């Protein structure tokens, strides 16, 4: 059965938090270069250890090294850690050594998803700031526990919802008002594999779009339902369709799949005055487009306009992951709440867990 969310339970975006969330998104891209210069000149740069040196962990290691903050690497597969140790001239530590090292201010967790909650808990209890790759946890309870612990220890907890730091999405938010009242959002995130054993496609792919949609709506959905295919592994969706409804009538659909022979990474935002498309498979010059006056009223109904003009929105090219890593370091230095905070991650977790539990089939009479 679908789970119903109540508006009064939506506590992620308090008045202060909501303003911070919006302002951070609108100004992040413009401040990146200035912030990088400030960090490089600052002798008190946070010292970071990256826990997990696999495919994605290597990218995090590279970015924190380029920002001058990488102080150590860790992986249970010591050969992976040793390779990065040699490449970046930093020590390779065990988890226990990293958590107990007083010179390390932050732990970046890029290990397997089922380990995220346990490792983040240990890091927070050790007094470390934590950047945790998505998904932050595989249950609402674990996500809530992490948020509570971060608050108790007065440590920063940030979740790696990377597309919030993409120049195209930041620009989309800047120009969102040009679309008028939002009516519908849909997202397709498709590809062939990588198939994961412990978490479903919801946690792997749909998490990106749930985060983006919540950022655009600034609301928690009232209802979440889903249908999915799990023939690769029982009860582990490999392809899923999510439907979200919001308090003001906005609807959103998400298609996430490991079973597609082609790749698609597209977010479409439809408003009463226009449609924006963020297509991350396109070249930079075409990643974000805006089409206005797509439809008009005629004889008491909407009709599509025959002559449409689509504008390609100019973007400043920047690596989203570098923006994200920089944001984490800046939040530590300034004591600011991250754009993708633990509370934001909790909301995403709630939606995903509800979607995974809401699958049902209705027979046609």
Structural account:
The protein is α/β, with parallel strands linked by helices and 365 residues long. It folds into two domains: 31-163 and 320-344, NAD(P)-binding Rossmann-like Domain (Rossmann fold, 3-Layer(aba) Sandwich), CATH 3.40.50.720; 165-318, Dihydrodipicolinate Reductase, domain 2. The protein has ten helices and 16 strands. The chain has helices at residues 15-41, 55-66, 78-88, 95-100, 116-125, 140-153, 167-174, 201-217, 320-334, 342-357, and strands at residues 3-4, 48-51, 70-74, 106-109, 129-133, 157-160, 182-192, 223-229, 239-245, 251-257, 259-271, 274-279, 288-292, 295-298, 301-304, 310-312. It is globular and about 70 Å long.
Radius of gyration: 21 Å
Using the alpha-carbon principal axes, give the shape. globular
Overall SS class: alpha/beta
Spans of at least 5 consecutive residues whose pLDDT stays below 50 are 1-27, 29-34, 36-42, 361-365
Q: What fraction of the residues are assigned to beta strands by DSSP? A: 15-25%
Report the top-level CATH class of the largest domain.
Alpha Beta
Strand order of the largest sheet: 1-8-9-10-7-11-12-13-16
- End-to-end Cα distance: 19 Å
What is the N-to-C succession of helices and strands? EHEHEHHEHEHEHEHEEEEEEEEEHH
Query: Got a strand count?
Result: 16
- According to CATH, what is the topology of the largest domain? Rossmann fold
Estimated helix fraction? 25-40%
CATH architecture of the largest domain: 3-Layer(aba) Sandwich
Q: Determine the number of helices (DSSP H or I, runs of at least 4 residues).
A: 10
pLDDT average, as an integer? 87
Number of domains: 2
The major pleated sheet works out as: 9 strands, mixed
CATH homologous superfamily placement of the largest domain: NAD(P)-binding Rossmann-like Domain
